[in-house]
Amino acid sequence: APISMVTKVSEILLVPNTSPAKSVRELVELARKEPLNYASVGTGSLAHLATEMFLSTAGVKMTHVPYRSVPQAQQAVMTGEVALFFDTPITALPQVNAGTVRALGISTAKRLAVAPEIPTIAEAGLEGYEVTGWNGVLAPANTPRPIIDKLNKIIVEALKTPEIEKLLTEQGLEAVGNSPEEFAALMHADIEKWIRVTRAAGI
User: Fold this and answer.
1) In tens digits, what is the pLDDT along the chain, a chain of 203 residues?
2) What predicted TM-score, i.e. pTM, was given to this entire model?
């Protein structure tokens, strides 16, 4: 039983500092010219699906290399073992700010408040591309509606407090807080979307 979405989260497209691709357009052109690998943190992870959607939208192919953890995938992109890795802001931005990797774009429809200099992938040349991850709160099925409503009210009100908004923004997250019906509709839409992406990619 959906209660409320809590946060939206983007993925940041990272490439090695040594990559000749300085933009999303250049990365797509590079993929058309030579075989490239990309990292994920496992089959079916958001990083994996975000990349497959990127490749599908761009009309290019790359080889998937799943790693067991974010640090391993980050190391692979730092060393040039892979050509790209989609990473969440909380783990990607420290590496971007340290200059160990290059950020080409943000997967969501709008730029991050904590990294406004990084364009969205759609802005950077791949029109129509958008991937948004999220975190939410659910209860067991058949939880009485008054309990769902009470929890929803508490969560939505908490997400509107300046302290919580600031904490989440600093982690590259966007506070949401919506109705159980809105959250349910988004979940169903995402299920349909990822079914299409996974089937098209043969995952």
Assistant:
1) 999 999 999 999 999 999 999 999 999 999 999 999 999 999 999 999 999 999 999 999 999 999 999 999 999 999 999 999 999 999 999 999 999 999 999 999 999 999 999 999 999 989 999 999 999 999 999 999 999 999 999 999 999 999 999 999 999 999 999 999 999 999 999 999 999 999 988 88
2) 0.91
Alpha-carbon Rg for the chain in angstroms: 18
User: Following DSSP, what letter does each residue of 37-69 receive, concatenated?
Assistant: EEEESSTTSHHHHHHHHHHHHHT---EEEE-SS
**Residues in Cβ contact with 80 at an 8 Å cutoff, skipping those fewer than 6 apart:** 16, 18, 19
Spatial contact of 104 and 126, defined as CB atoms under 8 Å apart: no
Give the Cα separation of 187 and 55 in Å (integer). 23
Residue type for position 116: P
Direct distance between the N- and C-terminal alpha carbons of the chain, in angstroms, rounded to an integer: 28
Own/partner contacts of 152-156, CB < 8 Å, gap of 24 or more, are 152/3, 152/4, 152/179, 152/180, 155/3, 155/4, 155/6, 156/4
Q: How far apart are CA 85 and CA 15, in angstroms?
A: 7
Q: What are the residues facing 174 on neighbouring strands?
A: 8
d(CA 170, CA 74): 21
Helix and strand counts by DSSP (H, E) for the chain = 7, 8
